[in-house]
Each structure stands twice: as C-alpha cells, then as structure tokens.
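Following up on my earlier thread - several people asked me to post the actual chain instead of describing it. Fair enough. Here it is, all 159 residues.
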Amino acid sequence: MRLVLSFTTLLLVAVIVYQWKYEEYDFSGTRWHCSETQMGFTSKAYGNYDKIEELTTIYFPTNGSALYYQSGTLTHKNGDIEPFELVVTSKNKIVANRIEQTFTSVDWSEKPLNSPLFIRDKNSAVGYESELNYYIDGKKLYFFSKSGSEEDNYACHKV
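Reply from S.P.:
Thanks for posting it. Predicted structure:
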C-alpha cells in the first residue's frame, strides 16, 4: 500500500511540475507593444543610418497566427528622417515556452523612399522561419533565442 501511495504522490508531483514548467500560454486575442532603437551600425549596408526607431504591435488572432504592425523612423547620418509603416504576417506553432514562426507576407503602408536596402531586408522576411523562446511575467513578454544572441532579445508589454 505504501508503494502505491508513494508512486501516486510522485506521479502527481511530476504532473504538476510538468504543467508548471511546460504549460503553453494562450496568445489568442492578445496584443503586445514592443519598441526598439538600433544605433551604431557596423555593416556597410546600414552605415548610412544614424539610428532606426521601431514600434511593433503584435496581435495574435489565434495561437496559430500573428500580425506585426511596425512603424518607425529611419534617421540618416545626413539628418534626413524617413518614416515607415508595414504589416508582417506569420503562421505560428507554440510548443511549451517556444514559438516557431514562418513569416508569410509583408505589406507596406509607407515605404522609406531613400532606403531600398531597408525595404529589401523587410521584404526578405517572407518565408523566413524563426524559433524563439518566450517568458511571460504578468503583462510583460520577453522573447529570446536559445543562443542568447542580443539581436533576438525583445521585451514587450501587453495592451
């Protein structure tokens, strides 16, 4: 009897720990704001920019899809400022604390006229597959890569 009770208790603890550690978050119907400013570019392609400021609103109609509304400004080293606005869509698969995405479309509302490389880079997202871990703390959402790469770290807040 003790053996059965011990096994049942151990099984119950294992199920609780598994649910706590690997429970999937239901993103359906949620919106998140993420903002980012990039500066100090080292690549030749982005050497003409002083900074890029971007505000992204991520809307998850379902766990299986997301819409990224991105707007911002490109500040050129010569002082010119160009606004941009676009929508990126993705198909998602959420597994435990990881989101796997395949980006399916990029639609521009406002293109920066003097930034063809920036436009090309955004358009190249179509077909790109991304895998990021996420962590949710209340109304804060953190995305990060397995490798810990800084360029894949994002902090967002729920709206």
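The chain has a mean pLDDT of 86. That should answer part of your original question.
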